[in-house]
Structures are given as structure tokens and as C-alpha cells.
Design goal:
A: about 450 residues; alpha/beta; D-Maltodextrin-Binding Protein, domain 2; about 15% strand; B: two-stranded antiparallel sheet; elongated
């Protein structure tokens, strides 16, 4: 008798588990968002503008943030900074660093389950979401904060068709080459100041029986190939100047244009087997993050990568320290026409809802206090040295930045020709799609440059 | 087979004792079970107390279990009333129907008076329950057909008017006459057709169909908020009256009919939830995916078949420009040679046995391998997602089945069979993602100036170092190799001297391949074997293979992962099929003078042919959908893109929903024939 009861009971229980399994997605998603949306009724919106760190009370509302930054120092510093702000204002802030952020943010948005805020390394993607109506414009108060702490040039890329959606949260200087001064000195090499000197130096290094000239690796999960696109952007800027660059970014100069193809071919020509140390054997298989160790280990002389790469050197690496033979320093990625162009990039925060708690966090990200605190926390997380973080927010205490980092900031502020990372501005189909994937195929030698260019051009939407 | 039977018989005696309700003796094992169960329960409770997420999940599960069980039991109780308390049943059933309708309208805030707050929420369902419940009760007390028709139609009319009047202004539909006519006509026809099929009068079915069609046409095809009160009335009253009239046309069921309802309802209560889940989770999404695949990337406008067309015109999915390359590819040429050999052998066999090709005769080997190599050569010459998918299907299906069969046969009845089979089956327990990560390390290459940490490249580069080196290890390996070659030669000559040409095949292959390897290894031809390269100045350095980065062979190395996993699956199933072949058959064949191999090819193989068919189709279905391996190892780079990963890329990376859906449908359509074949097979056997 009991047995039969069990069998009968098994039917609804099994059904219920299915139902629970189906429902639980909603549960976790709902659990994150409902408190936030209920909070405004109970609390007063914060009116303490600039002093965003000061204590508002949001009744323990939850604000979820996702972003592509998931290296330990970044996660540690973000948790520190956001956690401190959250505690002061009774907001429960959860940051999730996602290796496949590029794909997952789409899924989350389409599934109607977006985070409250996401960090966007690509203004192009931010614009796509804004135009689709997924993102919410920042409130007037956040705009005021932005005007207080950020120059128009930096706000620009968070602005979509005249409405401000993004708040700059991080600034990157890309036109840098990392090297070990001691290794250069030991081999008798000079820091190159022109591109011709740079290529000549590479030839010399390759001919000599020692470390290879360059460390290159372009693997980065879903985003594999972005390092290559950076090189192409540098080459377009250097070979053909900012006008061509701007035309290329808005596709009035197509990818299959001869000038662009020339710039696409240039890095490939430079990345010969003799010239490149690839930790994982081939460039396409080597993670972009795995280039710091070989540079420090003396397996290659140079690595072109943005300032944030400081955070990816092995722990304990010292920077610009003449007393230390293993210290790492940077030089400006040399130009061709003497116009000193600078390639920049950045991360923007944008909100998927306009709850007071969400906007309070957005407001805080826009302040100099956020930048300052994150820099301090990240410096601590990497154990001194360069943090890998940089922010061009006005009014930060300069002492949180080391001299080398201050020089990055001054380059950023004083550069006459500064252009934002082009692939990040292009539509995601190209800038976070075919430019990466076809570029990887080109680097890997699967297709030639004209084939890659025509495939990328064919994928340009509209 | 023997072990299976033993466990079966030993398991049976326990059950009847319990079923018979005899007192159960509680032994130590029983107490152990109780202790474990309590420990698990306590552990979970403690866990729930500590972890917020676990707690909320547990509460959800408990509530859902209770609600589902309650619903299910309530449904059974409700239908218990059918036989003897028809009026109660009708009142409750119709009341529930009305309440659901009220929840749908009121809960979605379509009607006036709805909003937040308990009372405003509950008023709509209450009204619906009272009206329809009342109708249900009254109808059981009325037997006169005219009265029934009047009451039901009248209630329908009244309900329709009430709903139409209370619909909020912003939801009043702007009617599209064409849509209403078309939907009504189509669904009326469907309803009538279904009624005829079920051997009822077509009028009733047509009325219900027309009502549903009217609702769909009036509400589904309309711009909500564009309409007026009149349009709202038209949209609501007509179907309400139709449904009411249809109900009024029925006669109150007598006792035998009620018994029928009672019996049939139980089947629905049991199967209903499952069907509902399949419908909601599988059928509806499938139809919607098909619909989305016809729309553009933002699912806004129809683009006809453009999404499907682009799959076949995109050079990334189909690139056959260099198909002539296959004539120069090594696998293709070897395959052609083997096919030629098959023709020669076939002609000889035809002369001797009358059949050129027959299961188990010498033609089959070269024929199958030749075909495989020719197709392999063809696949290496072409590029694109579609080609890759076909390549996967051919290679993985063939090797998984063939290897599984070979292992099952060779291990059958041997010592250590269980251990060997367990080990080969083990990869099945590893997830595809886990296996891909493992193999990524196996295939890993490092810069040649450093030590290789990937197994394959470490072996390859190590072999190169051995082959080009001149130290003691090289000497030892050379001697060992020479001994192997000589041994193989001895076996070969033995077989040839005894004129057992069948037994000479394996030693011959061994001798040739080992001999070739030896010649290459010591550098008689070429500079050596393995991963090395010699620079212009004569220095020797390592040379790695980029297994998963070299177009097009990267595909093959990914397939190896799948084969590694799936071989265990086909081995286990084929092994049990082989053991299920009656021993009498084999013994009878042997008494008639069949050799071991004849017994296999002529007796066992025909017996397990259906099993092989099932395995092949299951593998094809699985391989067509391959995703995880590609996603983890190359993410579709290096010419390894497959349909499923492409679909993911399009739908979730590039947010091109139309194309993503089209690719999903394409996978569905290509798997469908195989699925149908498989299901047919299963039904035939059952």
C-alpha cells in the first residue's frame, strides 16, 4: 500500500521539480531586481550631488553590475570601492566580472534579465543597446556630476545621438610599448623614436642570438583578436592620419580600401616567426595576458599594449625603477609622420534602469572619488607598483598615481591627435565580431588580407 | 548477459514480500538507511539555515511541490464528483473556468477596477466564477433543449457585453476585418474537420473554431488602444455568444456518459501536465523559432528566406572554390588506391563466391576505408560551416561505431574485459566541456624555445629530438625499432610460407609501416621524423604542431575528442547486443564448420544490425548538434566553425536573431529525418 502511495506521489513531485527548475531562473533574476524597484517608494532620492560617498539610505536595495574586467586586482579593487560606497548608502552592490561578457550581456538583455549597470569597454556596443532602448539615459544629477569631473572629450563616447548614457569609469592609453631598460642596456639597444628605428631594432634583435624582439598573443576567449585590431588602429593612425581613421571608423572608407588593407597587413608582416615569442606556440593561441611573464623572463624584448597591462605583469614586478634590473618601463609606440598620434580607450558604465539606487551608483562612478579610491585599492591589490588602472577624472589626488602613471595622464591630456579605439566604436557586428574573428584568421595565415578585408566589409550592417 | 540475469532473479524475491504487506523485519541495513536519510535531511536544513540562496530555492521547491501535488489531488477529487454529483461538478468546473478567465483579464489589468491591492485583484476572478459557475449549475437542472440554448446563449451574450464594457480604453481593439474573416474561416474549417474526424457533427466544432478564430483575429491582429467601445463589443460578444450557443446545444450527460467522462478524465489528469510542458517548453518555442527565422535581425520585418539563403551564400559557411584541391590531397589519393584495390578484390570474390560485396568478405575493408579516405580528402579541400558539420558526421559516426564495435568484439569473453570496458567507458562520465579542456592541454603547443607541456607536442618534439640526435637514447630507440621490424618480418614470412594469406595482412601492414618509420627515423630518407626543423645554418630546433589552429585538420583533432567520448557509448551498447545473441546460434554455426570470423560476420553481425543502426542514428543526431567542444577549444576560429556554434554566435554575440533562428531551424531540419527514422525503427521493434 505504502509503495503505491509513493508511486502516486512521485508524479506531482516530479512535475513540481520541473516547475521549480523552470521557475528558479525567474526567482534568482527577480530576487536581484525587485528590491531595487521597490526601494524608491520607501526612500527619498539622494540630493547630495557631488558628495556621492556620503550616506544616503536606499534600504538595502540591490544593484548588480557586470563587466569584462575579471583579473584579480580589478575585481578586488571594484569590490572594495563599490562595497564601501554601498555600505555607506545601504545599497547592496554586486560586481560580476565575466570572461564572456561580450556574449552574455546580450543574452541577459534579451532574456529580460539585465544587470542594473554594466561596464562597457566598447562605446559601439553601448550605442547599440541605447538605440535599442535597453539602456536608460543618466539623470540630470549624474550629468552635473559628469560636467564637474570629466572633460567633454571623455564624456563624448558615452553620448548616443545627443543623450548621455555612459559614464566614463576608466581611461586607457594604448600607444605604449613595454620593455626592460636593463635588458636593452645589456644588449646595447636604444629606445626607438621613429617607426623606422622601431622596425630596424626588431630586425637587429631577430638577427642577434638572444630573446626575440616582440611578445605577441591575441587570444582572449570570445574577444580573441582584439589585440590585433589595436595594432591595425595604431597603423591606420600612423600611416594615414586621423582623417582616414575617422572615415574608416564610420565606414565611409571601407575595410577593403587599399590604405586600410596596408594597415591590416603591416602587423602581420612584422609578426614573423623570427620576430615573435608566442608563449602558446602560435600568436592566435597565446592569451594576450600571457605576454608579461616572458617579457620579465627575458624571452622577448618588447610588448605593445595599453597601460592597463601593468596589472598583468607577474606579481612583484617593479616599474621604472633604475635600481632594479628586472624593472619594466614603457616607451611611446613610435610614429611614422612625426605627428605623435595617441590611441586611447576606456570603459563606460551604463544603466539598464533608472531606480534611484542605480543612478546613485552611476553618479558615484562619475566622481573623482571613485577613480581615486579604485586606483588606491588596485595599487594595493597588485602589491604596489603600477595598478593597471587609470582615470582621467578631474580633481583626483595625484599622489595615488605613481610618476609613470602620471606621465600617462599627461600624455592623455596633452596629445594633439588622440583617437578612441576604432573597433570599440564600430557596430558590434564588426568591432566585436568579424574584425576580431577574420583578423585572427588573417594572423593565423588562414586567409590573406584582401579576403579578410572583404569579409569584414561584407559584415558591416546596413 | 549472465550477470544481468543473476541480478534480476536475485532482485525479484524481495518485492513480493513487501507488496503482500507482510511484516517487514527491520534489519541493520534498514536502520543504516534511516540514519543516512536523517543525516542528509539535517545537513540540508543546516545548509538552508546558513545559505540565503539555498533557503529561497528550498522554499520555492517546497511551495511548488505542495502546489502541484495539491492541484493534482484537487483535480482528482473534482472528477470524483462526476458520477454522482454532476451538478456540483459542473458548478465547480465552470466556476474554475470563470475564475481563470477573470484572472487572465483582471490579472493582466485589461479590465476596469483592476490594479494593485488584494480586493481589486480578486474581484474579477470572483465575478467570473460566480457567473460561469451559476451557468454550469443551472444547466444541470435544465433538460429542455430550447431552454438550454436560451440560457447558455443568453449568459454568453451577457458575459460578452460585460467584458467588452469593462475593457479599459487603452486596450480596445482597432478591428481588422480581413484578419477576423480569415482567422474565423480557417479555424472554423479546422474545427469542423476535427469534429468529422472524431465522428461528431461538424457544426459544433465549426462554432468553437469560429469563436477561437474570431478572438484571435479580433484581438491578435488588432492595434490595441485604437478601437472604440463598439469594436470592443464586436470583438467580444460574437465569440462569447458562439461558445454559449455551442454549450447550449449539448444535452446533459446521462449516467453512462458521466462514467465515460470520469474514466477519460483520469488519463488527461495524468498525461495532461506532461503534454502541457512539452507544448510550452518545446512546441511553442520551436514554432516561434521558425517564425523568427523568417524575420530580420531585430525580428521586425519579414525578409522571406534571406536568412536561410545567406547560410548557403556566405563564404564562411560554404566555400567550395578550391574543391579541385582534393585530387591532390594524400587521403584522397590513398582512398582512390584502396577503392581500386576493392574493385580488384571484388572481381576476384565475384568469381569465387558469386558476390562482389558481402558483409565480411575481403572487399568490404578496402571499400569502406577507401570511401572514408576519399570523403576525408574531399572535406579537406572545402571550407565552411556546412562542410565542417558534414565532416563531423561522417568521421565521428564512423570511428565511434567502428571502434566501439571492434572493442566490444575483441574484448568479448576475454580476461580483463570488465576493466578494459570500464576504462573505455569512463570518458562518457566527463562532460563535453571538461573533455575539451583536457584535450586542449593535450594539444597545447608552447613556443619552441621553451619546453613543450602539451602531451602530443612533447612527444612529437621529443621524437624529433631523438631522431635527429646522436646520443645513447637515439641508439637504444634505433635498436628497439630494428628489432620490431625484424619481428614483424618474421611473422610475415611465417604466414607467407604457410600460405595463410589472410593471416599475412596484419604483419604485412606492420612491416611496411614500421619499416617506413625506421627508414625515416634513422634518416635514410629525409632528415628524420618528429617535430624539428633545420635552419639554413644547420642548427636543429623544435617544431610544434598547432593541432587546433591549423586549417583544415584542426577539425579532425576536435573530432577526436568526440570520438574519445562516444566510443564508450557505442561499445557498451554493442557489447550487450553481442552478448544477447543466443549462444546456440553461434554454436550451431561452429558445428557446421564456421570459423570464428565467419561466425562473427555471418551470425553475430546480422543479429546486431538494428542496434548498429540505432547507434549510428543516435550519433548522427548528437554530432549534428556539436557545440561544446568547438566552443571551448577554438570557438569556431581556424576553420572549425559548426552550425550550433555559429547559431550561438549569430544569436547571442552579433544579436542577429533572424539568422540565429534560421541556423537553429537548419540543425532541426537536418536532424529530423534521422530522428523520424530512429523513431520508426523503435516502433517497429516495440
Amino acid at each position: 500500500m505504502t509503495k503505491r502511495w509513493l508511486k502516486l506521489a512521485a508524479v506531482p513531485i516530479a512535475l513540481a521539480f520541473v516547475a521549480a527548475a523552470c521557475g528558479s531562473d525567474d526567482e534568482s533574476g527577480g530576487g536581484d531586481t525587485t528590491p531595487a524597484s521597490e526601494a524608491p517608494a520607501a526612500t527619498d532620492a539622494p540630493d547630495d550631488g557631488g558628495d556621492a560617498g556620503g550616506g544616503g539610505d536606499f534600504d538595502g536595495a540591490t544593484v548588480t553590475i557586470t563587466g569584462p574586467e575579471r583579473d584579480d586586482p580589478s575585481i578586488a579593487s571594484l569590490n572594495d570601492v563599490l562595497g564601501e560606497f554601498g555600505e555607506a548608502n545601504n545599497i547592496n552592490i554586486e560586481y560580476t566580472g565575466d570572461a564572456d561578457w561580450e556574449a552574455n550581456i546580450n543574452t541577459q538583455v534579451q532574456g529580460g534579465n539585465p544587470p542594473n549597470i554594466s561596464y562597457f569597454p566598447q562605446p559601439g556596443k553601448l550605442a547599440d543597446f541605447a538605440r535599442a532602448g535597453n539602456l536608460k539615459p543618466v539623470t540630470d544629477q549624474v550629468n552635473e556630476t559628469l560636467d564637474e569631473f570629466w572633460l567633454d572629450g571623455f564624456q563624448l563616447y558615452g553620448n548616443v545621438d545627443g543623450t548621455q548614457y555612459g559614464v566614463p569609469a576608466k581611461t586607457d592609453l594604448k600607444s605604449l610599448v613595454w620593455y626592460q631598460p636593463a635588458a636593452f642596456a645589456a644588449a646595447g639597444y636604444e629606445v626607438p623614436t621613429t617607426f623606422a628605428e622601431f622596425t630596424a631594432l626588431i630586425d637587429t634583435m631577430a638577427a642577434a642570438d638572444g630573446p626575440k624582439p616582440l611578445c605577441v598573443g591575441i587570444e582572449s576567449g570570445q574577444a580573441t583578436g582584439w589585440t590585433y585590431t589595436d595594432w591595425v588602429e595604431e597603423m591606420v593612425l600612423r600611416l594615414h592620419g586621423p582623417e582616414v581613421y575617422d572615415g574608416w571608423v564610420d565606414n565611409s572608407i571601407p575595410f577593403d580600401d587599399e590604405r586600410i588593407q596596408e594597415a591590416m597587413q603591416a602587423p602581420v608582416d612584422l609578426w614573423t616567426e623570427d620576430n615573435v615569442f608566442a608563449a602558446a606556440g602560435s600568436i592566435a593561441a597565446t592569451s594576450f595576458a600571457d605576454n608579461g611573464q616572458p617579457l620579465v623572463d627575458g624571452q622577448c624584448y618588447m610588448h605593445r599594449q595599453a597601460n592597463f597591462f601593468a596589472g598583468l605583469f607577474p606579481e612583484g614586478t617593479t616599474f621604472a625603477d633604475p635600481a632594479d634590473d628586472s624593472a619594466v618601463d614603457v616607451f611611446y609606440f613610435p610614429d611614422i609622420n612625426g605627428d605623435k598620434p595617441v590611441l586611447t580607450a576606456g570603459i563606460f558604465a551604463a544603466a539598464f534602469d533608472e531606480d534611484p539606487a542605480t543612478m546613485a551608483v552611476m553618479n558615484y562612478i562619475a566622481t573623482a572619488e571613485y577613480a581615486e579610491k579604485r586606483q588606491a585599492a588596485q595599487t594595493e591589490a597588485v602589491g604596489g607598483g603600477l595598478s593597471g588602472y587609470l582615470s582621467a577624472a578631474i580633481g583626483q589626488d595625484p599622489s595615488v598615481y605613481q610618476p609613470l602613471e602620471q606621465s600617462f595622464l599627461s600624455i592623455l591630456e596633452s596629445a594633439e591627435i588622440a583617437r578612441f579605439d576604432g573597433s570599440d566604436l564600430m557596430p558590434a557586428d564588426v568591432g566585436a565580431g568579424t574584425f576580431w574573428s577574420e583578423g585572427t584568421s588573417l594572423v593565423n595565415g588562414d586567409i590573406d588580407v584582401s579576403e579578410a578585408a572583404s569579409r569584414i566589409q561584407a559584415s558591416w550592417p546596413g | 548477459m549472465e550477470t544481468l540475469e543473476r541480478t534480476d532473479t536475485s532482485g525479484e524475491p524481495d518485492d513480493p514480500i513487501v507488496e503482500a504487506g507482510q511484516p517487514v523485519t527491520r534489519d541493520a541495513q534498514w536502520y543504516l538507511k534511516v540514519v543516512v536519510a536523517v543525516a542528509i535531511a539535517v545537513g540540508m536544513l543546516y545548509w538552508a539555515a546558513v545559505e540565503e540562496k539555498i533557503r529561497s530555492t528550498l522554499i520555492t521547491v517546497v511551495i511548488t511541490v505542495a502546489a502541484s501535488a495539491g492541484l493534482w489531488i484537487a483535480a482528482n477529487f473534482l472528477f470524483d464528483q462526476v458520477r454522482n454529483r454532476w451538478a456540483t461538478f459542473n458548478a465547480i468546473a465552470f466556476g474554475l473556468l470563470g475564475a481563470v478567465l477573470g484572472v487572465l483579464l483582471h490579472g493582466n489589468k485589461l479590465t476596469l477596477g483592476s490594479g494593485s491591492g488584494f480586493f481589486t485583484w480578486v474581484i474579477g476572478p470572483l465575478v467570473g466564477a460566480v457567473v460561469l459557475g451559476g451557468l454550469g449549475y443551472v444547466m444541470t437542472r435544465t433538460q429542455d433543449p430550447n431552454q438550454r440554448l436560451t440560457i447558455a446563449t443568453g449568459t454568453g451574450l451577457a458575459a460578452g457585453i460585460v467584458i467588452a464594457v469593462t475593457i479599459r480604453e487603452q486596450f480596445q481593439p482597432g478591428l481588422d476585418v480581413v484578419a477576423i474573416v480569415v482567422y474565423t474561416a480557417i479555424l472554423a474549417a479546422v474545427g469542423a474537420g476535427l469534429s468529422i474526424l472524431l465522428k461528431h457533427s461538424p457544426v459544433g466544432g465549426a462554432m468553437i473554431g469560429a469563436a477561437i478564430g474570431w478572438i484571435l483575429g479580433a484581438w491578435g491582429g488588432a492595434d490595441l488602444g485604437d478601437g472604440s467601445l463598439v469594436e470592443s463589443l464586436v470583438a467580444t460578444v460574437v465569440p462569447a455568444v458562439l461558445l454559449g450557443a455551442r454549450f447550449g446545444m449539448t444535452t446533459d450527460p446521462d449516467y453512462t456518459e458521466r462514467v465515460n467522462i470520469d474514466t477519460r478524465s483520469r488519463a488527461v489528469i495524468f498525461v495532461g501536465p506532461a503534454i502541457l510542458f512539452i507544448f510550452v517548453m518545446l512546441v511553442v518555442p520551436a514554432i516561434r523559432t521558425g517564425y523568427l527565422s523568417l524575420l530580420d535581425r531585430d525580428s521586425e520585418e519579414f525578409v522571406d528566406g534571406e536568412n536561410y539563403g545567406s547560410v548557403f551564400t556566405d563564404r564562411n559557411s560554404l566555400d567550395v572554390d578550391n574543391w579541385t584541391d582534393m585530387f591532390t590531397s594524400v587521403p584522397f589519393l590513398i582512398g582512390v588506391v584502396l577503392l581500386g584495390l576493392a574493385v580488384v578484390v571484388g572481381a576476384a570474390m565475384k568469381k569465387r563466391t558469386g558476390r562482389a560485396v558481402e558483409i565480411g568478405n575481403p572487399t568490404v575493408g578496402p571499400l569502406v576505408v577507401g570511401l572514408l579516405l576519399v570523403s576525408f580528402g574531399a572535406f579537406t579541400a572545402m571550407r565552411g560551416t556546412l562542410i565542417n558539420n558534414l565532416w563531423w558526421v561522417v568521421v565521428v559516426t564512423f570511428f565511434s561505431t567502428a571502434l566501439g564495435l571492434a572493442i566490444a568484439v575483441l574484448a568479448d569473453g576475454r580476461r580483463g574485459e570488465r576493466v578494459a570496458k570500464s576504462i573505455i567507458f569512463m570518458p562518457m562520465a566527463i562532460s563535453l566541456v571538461g573533455a575539451s579542456i583536457i584535450w586542449r592541454f593535450v594539444y597545447l603547443a608552447r613556443d619552441t624555445s621553451t619546453e613543450q607541456t602539451g602531451v602530443m607536442n612533447a612527444l612529437w618534439v621529443g621524437l624529433g629530438r631523438l631522431s635527429t640526435g646522436s646520443g645513447l637514447p637515439t641508439l637504444i630507440v634505433t635498436v628497439l625499432l630494428a628489432i620490431c621490424v625484424v619481428l614483424a618480418l618474421i611473422f610475415l614470412s611465417n604466414a607467407l610460407v604457410k600460405r595463410e594469406y589472410g593471416r599475412a595482412v596484419v604483419p604485412a601492414i606492420l612491416t611496411v609501416s614500421l619499416g617506413w618509420f625506421f627508414v625515416r627515423f634513422v634518416g635514410i630518407i629525409g632528415d628524420g621524423v618528429g617535430g624539428f626543423k633545420i635552419d639554413d645554418d644547420g642548427t636543429v630546433s623544435g617544431q610544434t604542431i598547432f593541432f587546433v589552429q591549423e586549417v583544415p585538420y584542426a577539425n579532425f583533432w576536435l573530432m577526436v575528442i568526440m570520438i574519445w567520448i562516444q566510443t564508450g557509448f557505442s561499445m557498451v551498447i554493442l557489447s550487450s547486443a553481442i552478448k544477447a545473441v543466443p549462444t546456440e546460434l553461434i554454436e550451431a554455426a561452429k558445428i557446421d564448420g564456421a570459423t570464428e570470423s565467419q561466425a562473427f560476420w555471418r551470425v553475430i553481425l546480422p543479429q546486431i544490425a538494428t542496434t548498429i543502426g540505432v547507434i549510428v542514428t543516435t550519433l548522427i543526431v548528437g554530432v549534428m548538434k556539436v557545440f561544446d567542444i568547438v566552443k571551448v577549444t577554438t570557438n569556431g576560429q581556424f576553420g572549425t566553425q559548426v552550425l550550433a556554434n555559429n547559431m550561438f554566435d549569430e544569436a547571442f554575440n552579433r544579436v542577429n536573431i533572424g539568422k540565429g533562428a534560421a541556423l537553429a531551424m537548419l540543425i532541426f531540419f537536418s536532424v529530423l529525418p534521422v530522428m523520424i527514422f530512429n523513431i520508426r525503427k523503435m516502433q517497429q521493434e516495440g
